[in-house]
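Entry type: protein chain
Record version: 2
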Amino acid sequence: MSWPKVQGALAGLPDGNGRILIDTNNPMQRPPLPPIDVGGRASTSIVEEWTPGARVVKAFNHHYFVNLEKSPDTEGGRRVLFYAGNDEPAKREVAHLIDQLGFFGINLGGVEHGSRLFQSPGGPLIAHDLVKFG
């Protein structure tokens, strides 16, 4: 979903009531439009504001979607997926899901620092198809 539609899609939902919401969005528009200015914030912190009561974890969004369609097992290793969030139990559950799907999850910490590392545009880890060996 494009960033301009995220708030509207979340509006009117009942309180998150402790449910985990996996944020797969980035503050982007279709090229050639410029990236959306989120005021220097992590976009996931904005999603947290839009989803009261939810436990938000950013994951499944640093790859081009075609890489997620590929087998998570590759060349003797497992394709890496990053995740970040402020709720440690929620991150453990997302890490377990990532592992169940066959990927290798790497916890990058909290929302404000960790999610920016793989937030597009500008995150240094965005769009890398990394594989964990061993």
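Comment: The mean pLDDT is 91.
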